[in-house]
Write a structure and sequence with these properties.
Elements (H helix, E strand, L loop, with lengths): L15 H20 L9 H10 L4 H7 L12 H12 L4 H26 L2 H13 L1 H6 L6 H23 L6 H17 L1 H21 L7 H12 L3 H8 L13 H12 L4 H27 L10 H22 L6 H4 L3 H13 L5 H22 L11 H9 L8 E6 L5 H8 L8 E3 L5 H11 L3 E7 L5 H10 L1 E8 L3 E7 L7
Parallel strand pairs: 1-2, 1-3
Antiparallel strand pairs: 3-5, 4-5
Helix pairs in contact: 1-5, 1-6, 2-4, 5-6, 5-8, 6-17, 6-18, 8-9, 8-10, 9-10, 9-11, 13-14, 14-17, 15-17, 19-20
């Protein structure tokens, strides 16, 4: 990986007004997909963690007393600090909580265009922006109260400015002040948003060191200026980070040891979980690799040809593969972190490589535009109708389970609510949104729930017992205990990992 100089590669140039019109259209389509139905889905488990953490009384309490501070929430604090101020000064509705991610998602479309233009040309930038606008996971991240959408944005921005710094270092020139400062700020934000953001910044630091040692040894003096501030920012957060790193269990399953399965699954995440699109883009990647090899061999055989210089393709290939391979190896030897949300730091490189492959097809410009438009229309159709993204639930249905309880007021008097989920206040969020005074009295997790529930029922002796669950079902021993000693009155199981059960106690003290 080295300079992103691509002067030796022919590019397709577009008129400035045409580029602007196409970019505006792409951004508007992406904005429509991101802002449409922003509150259609219930907040799911991780989003409720965001609300639960961000809605603590003061910023100091959030940073010192929450699961975040104890290292149980596996993220740095910056996103939660932002959401703390959003909740405090704007509100905590689903739309408001998700709004920062939606805005970041729209900006990501513009950012990938800028990076594509810097590495190649307007053509690649527009194609990459079009892909980013319509594929599943960038849209989904933009509609969640989680850090992933901002991670995508700042991964692109950091890389955009990093490329400028690399060019200067490779040419043994002093980096320009503006890109240097901009990269430093974006890298600090990226690292403070997500531990995999820190991972990407660390890999960029290693790549910068290698480039300096190979081609510009005197430029090594710039490394402390680039990366020491990132280290200093993390010093106050070292204790929670170290506790997170020492976690022996993480909910993500260990990845398969079948390399073909791993690669294909990873590619399916990039391209909207579609086998057809995955095969198509794998073929495009193969075409790009074949063409690059042909050009390299041609240069080797022709002594008069200009020698190949390190360029954008190598940078993107390394960005696309190294973070993913590192996460895969780590997941095989220790705690698994091989999960698409973590791996999304490499997604932009995949879309940029796909854009380059499409741009280099032997087609006239108008046919290239038609092909790109057809691919994006097909991806949008798959998102809306194949996946039914806007018309069917795909997040934990906490809202629907809480609504079921609220809609049965005849069972509210002398009722106890047991919440089976990761956070005690998760269902309370929706009770508050519905204007209900109901609250979770007993919170249990996945294991050893019967003693706690038995003790609470014995102390309270309620007539009705509501069991609400989200993200995972109640454990079998708890259900067996309740069915053995209480009468099941009604219940509702929802398609996406949530439900509600109502039990009635006999006219006696609970066992």
């Amino acid at each position: 990986m080295a300079s992103a100089d691509t002067s030796d590669i022919p590019t397709r140039r577009l008129r400035g007004d045409t580029v602007l019109i196409l970019l505006v259209v792409i951004i508007l389509v992406g904005a429509w997909l991101r802002f449409s139905g922003l509150a259609n889905q219930s907040l799911w488990n991780d989003e409720l963690w965001t609300w639960d953490t961000a809605s603590m009384g003061t910023l100091g309490e959030m940073l010192t007393e929450s699961r975040l501070a104890r290292g149980e929430q596996t993220h740095p604090p910056l996103y939660f600090i932002l959401q703390h101020f959003v909740v405090r000064h704007i509100g905590d509705s689903e739309t408001v909580l998700r709004l920062p991610s939606a805005v970041a998602g729209v900006l990501t479309i513009a950012a990938v265009y800028l990076l594509g233009r810097r590495l190649y040309s307007d053509t690649e930038g527009l194609i990459a922006a079009a892909l980013m606008a319509v594929v599943l996971f960038p849209v989904r991240y933009s509609q969640e109260a989680r850090a992933n959408s901002m991670v995508l944005l700042f991964a692109l921005l950091a890389t955009y400015f990093w490329v400028d710094v690399l060019r200067s270092l490779w040419k043994r020139e002093r980096p320009r002040a503006w890109p240097l400062v901009a990269y430093l700020l974006c890298a600090m934000v990226l690292a403070a948003l997500h531990y995999f953001g820190l991972y990407l910044v660390g890999l960029q630091g290693i790549a910068t060191l290698v480039i300096c040692l190979v081609g510009a040894r005197r430029s090594v003096v710039w490394l402390p200026l680039l990366y020491l501030p990132v280290v200093l920012v993390y010093i106050p957060w070292l204790p929670p980070m170290l506790r997170t790193l020492r976690m022996k269990r993480y909910w993500a399953a260990a990845p398969s040891t079948d390399p073909f399965f791993v690669v294909f699954t990873y590619m399916r995440h990039l391209y909207s979980r579609s086998d057809a699109f995955t095969w198509m883009f794998l073929a495009l990647y193969a075409w790009l690799v074949g063409r690059a090899l042909h050009e390299w061999i041609t240069r080797r055989r022709d002594p008069a040809a200009e020698p190949a210089t390190p360029h954008a393709g190598l940078l993107l290939v390394l960005w696309f593969t190294v973070p993913t391979v590192g996460a895969y190896v780590k997941s095989l030897v220790s705690t698994s972190v091989f999960y698409e949300r973590n791996l999304s730091i490499a997604f932009p490189a995949g879309y940029l490589l796909a854009a380059r492959a499409i741009a280099r097809l032997p087609l006239r410009r108008r046919y290239l535009g038609v092909l790109t438009a057809a691919i994006c229309v097909a991806l949008t159709g798959h998102l809306m109708f194949g996946l039914r993204y806007y018309s069917s639930p795909h997040k934990d249905q906490f809202r629907e389970a809480a609504r079921f309880v609220v809609d049965h007021p005849e069972y509210h008097s002398d009722a106890m609510i047991i919440g089976v989920c990761y956070g005690k206040r998760f269902f309370d969020y929706y009770f508050q949104r519905f204007g209900s005074s109901l609250r979770t009295e007993v919170h249990v997790g996945k294991e050893k729930t019967v003693p706690k529930v038995r003790e609470a029922i014995a102390q309270r002796n309620p007539r009705y017992i509501w069991v609400l669950y989200g993200n995972f079902p109640p454990e079998r021993p708890l259900l067996d205990y309740l069915r053995a000693h209480f009468r099941l009155v009604t219940g509702q199981q929802y398609p996406i990992r949530a439900g509600a059960l109502l039990f009635e106690a006999p006219r006696r003290t609970a066992p």
